[in-house]
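HUMAN: Can I see a protein plus its fold?

ASSISTANT:
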Amino acid sequence: SYRDDPFTPVVARPPVTDDVDVVVVGGGIAGVLAGANLRRAGIERIRIVDQAGGIGGTWYWNRYPGVMCDVESYIYLPMLEELDYVPTHRYASGEEIRTHLEAIAERHGLVDDALFHTGVDRAEWDDESGRWEIHTDRGDRLRSRYYVLAVGILNLMKLPAISGMEEFSGHSFHTARWDYRYTGGAPGRPLTELGDKSVALVGTGATGIQCLPALAEAARHVFVFQRTPSAVGVRGNRATEPDFSESLSPGWQRDRMDNFQAVMLGKPVEVDLTDDGWTHHYAAVQHPPRHKGMSIEDYMRGAEELDYGIMEEHRRRVEELVADPATAEVLKPYYRYLCKRPCFHDEYLQAFNEPNVTLVDCPAGIDRITERGPVVGGHQYDIDCIVYGTGFEAELTPLYRRAGHEIVGRGGVSLAEKWADGASTLFGMMSRGFPNLFVMPAPGQQAVVTVNYTQLAVLGAEFVGRTVATLERLEVQAFDVSAEAEAEWSQKIIDS
């Protein structure tokens, strides 16, 4: 029940039998961009299949109060120039991101043929017909020339395994299925039904820090259960300047993306166009200064001192913003900067100054949950509602698990079997023995890693579109990766 869709009713429909050009699994950023680039390549019959009730991927599911992306909106929202759109704020809300993705999908005619609230059970390549045969959990039987896996990196909701969770007599839900019917309100609006409710917020990562301020404003009391404090830097969000677009020239978004990526890779740039916590802290820790003739010992000491200085900034920020010294001490991150995902927020720490917010420090986790609520250190907390802000499975979760279905290539070999000892691909996007299959690039599959996932999706989608256009022009019915090309790419990954 934690996985049920609270946003869009599931509508009964008869099973679909169809033969199309491309099936794209996933209607998030990667899937929408793949579909748009396939349209540009002249592909007419495209079906997106997604378990969600609409377009958006992680931004469809994550509609909790305060949700926003902490990567700058001008480089995170794709196809801004094509849609002639400028984000309203430096860091966009989840609602703005989702509606923008919907606009891209509508522009490229990807919605009408999509199969929502639909999961793939099995996909198998048929050599004789040169088609992928796809079976879904709603009885659909689809055949397609090309099969694109665009399943994202934040698609597997992670619930904690706490003894007694099912015994709780109150209300509970995960932040990726926020229940506005219970809390009242809507994305961007106050939560109107929590005035007499005591709420437990479990989790203080990127999700928990975003939804706490809204809960603190609305609920009678909020208990925040923290195992490990986050390093919460300045977000510095602000409305987009009215004259922002006046100085932009064609190609500005790609240039801005490249500039951000260059800074994150430690490459010299004339100006840091993003100029935020990612480029100030994350990039600095990733690339400590190294001078000619410096010993490895001095280099490592310099890296340690740089990291310590940045973490001291975060600890001083907690002291400055949190009034109670004991609470502030518990909120201070005590580890190196990259031991936990960095966070950025402008209201989270201040929320602990509210009299109706209590921080519960539980480094070993919650002992158990009873019908009344969580128990920590023998103390029973009486709670009306538990909000699990516990995020998603790690980005390095193997693709075949994130895809959620069996993918069978030539000779009856599944992708899980082939990748049992690690991914083996060409460019992290194609794998020998799986003809006409494209996998949108992601960590853990020999593809690049970047903070700005959108740029990764943009480049992957452009590659898919150009490759399919070339194959169509050459009238190639089926392609596969050569053993030599795959081995060379794998070796390049190892060498780098």
Summary: The radius of gyration is 24 Å. Residues 408 and 414 are 4 Å apart (CA to CA). The mean pLDDT is 96.
